Amino acid sequence: MSDDGRQNNGSENVPSRQRRRFPGISSRAYEHPADRSALVALRKLSGFDTVFKALSGLLPERSLRLLFLSDSVRVSDQQFTHLNDMLRDACYILDLEKVPPMYVNQDPQPNAMCIGLDEPIIVVTTGLVELLDEEEMRAVIGHEVGHALSGHALYRTILLFLTNLAVRVAWIPLGSIAIMAIVTALREWFRKSELSADRAGLLAGQDLRASMRGLMKLAGGNHLHEMNVDAFLQQADEYEAGGDLRDSVLKILNVLPRTHPFATVRAAELKKWAESRDYQRIMDGHYPRRDEDKDTSVSDSFRESAAHYATSVKSSKDPLMKLVTDIAGGAGGLGGRVRRGFDGFTSSPSSDTPTDGSPGNGSDDTPPRSED
């Protein structure tokens, strides 16, 4: 095992190069603020992990391990050797002492996951292996190793279990509502954890363009000659800034059932982090160490998360976030802005009197027209 990039048949031919290693790196170095604050709080709760692990009799972990062992291909020195090299390199770079077992599962849907209660296991599908080149795959494996290092596998397994349980008890109204409330909260956390793992993938692969290509392929397939990373990032900007308040609401509704953020959003978030001082400090060797984790303050972590969200809201181009900023700043004329933002949701928008004092579309003689 080494830091050298490798060349393998069937993958993009890339020059061998050195990658930086991060001895003793804490997952706090790359975790998204919202993800980090949630994890720190959970880890500080006495016996929290013990309680969840006590559910192991209910959770199908043993069944999952046996299933992958019996019906998938385990990555090793004899099978999928190039993936095994990438896995060991990612663990070496991120200093994960125990290399988790990894399996390749026959599934045309490109996907990867890190699950498990006591010990994480990584699963990648054949659809993903066939879709990505070597450097792109290296970022994905680093992404999953990042999940393992952060302790995400435990909570991901619980999320999978509760999602399946919600389907089984859907006929019980109150039981289904209670479980789905937990599932919704876990999904919100997990979407943030995906942003953290994307950063870990970049630290493992240390090739931003490859990480961008991988996300782009997840959105548009293996047609790189038809796609452009810069244009793909422009989509993310258009997605964030475009539309009115109706679109802001629809964005929220669209993302609620998902465990992953949208690919364009992930690409934009990762590029922003790669250009930040935080990333550069890590690459220069200045990062939090694991042996300092016990001294992590829950309140400091929450304050950092709150500061991050405050900055995000202020800088956001999303119409709803702009409205929130204006409300916080006491901007005038908000009533008219809200009505215009939701124009089309109401049946008679023309009956409203404009906030600037000008006459409306209707008059005393002509009743306002309703829109279809």
Characterise this structure.
The relative contact order is 0.11. A four-stranded mixed β-sheet has the order 1-2-4-3, with helices on both faces. It has 16 helices and four strands. The protein is globular, with a radius of gyration of 24 Å. The protein is mainly alpha-helical and 372 residues long. It has helices spanning 33-44, 48-53, 61-71, 81-93, 126-131, 134-150, 152-168, 173-205, 208-220, 229-241, 245-255, 263-274, 277-283, 298-315, 319-329, 334-341, and strands spanning 73-74, 102-105, 112-115, 121-125.
Ordered list of secondary-structure elements with their pairings:
Layout lengths: L32 H12 L3 H6 L7 H11 L1 E2 L6 H13 L8 E4 L6 E4 L5 E5 H6 L2 H17 L1 H17 L4 H33 L2 H13 L8 H13 L3 H11 L7 H12 L2 H7 L14 H18 L3 H11 L4 H8 L31
Parallel strand pairs: 2-4
Antiparallel strand pairs: 1-2, 3-4
Helix pairs in contact: 1-8, 1-14, 4-6, 4-8, 6-8, 6-9, 7-8, 8-12, 9-12, 10-12, 15-16
List keywords for this structure.
about 375 residues, mainly alpha, 4-stranded mixed β-sheet, about 55% helix, about 5% strand, globular, disordered N terminus, disordered C terminus
Q: What strand line-up does the widest sheet have?
A: 1-2-4-3
Low-confidence stretches: 1-15, 323-328, 344-372
Secondary structure: helix percent: 55-70%
Helix segment count? 16
Radius of gyration: 24 Å
Number of strands: 4
Task: Report the biggest beta sheet as strand number plus sense, adding barrel if it closes.
Answer: 4 strands, mixed
Helix/strand class: mainly alpha
Q: What form results from the Cα inertia axes?
A: globular
Termini gap = 65 Å
The average pLDDT value, as a whole number, equals 74
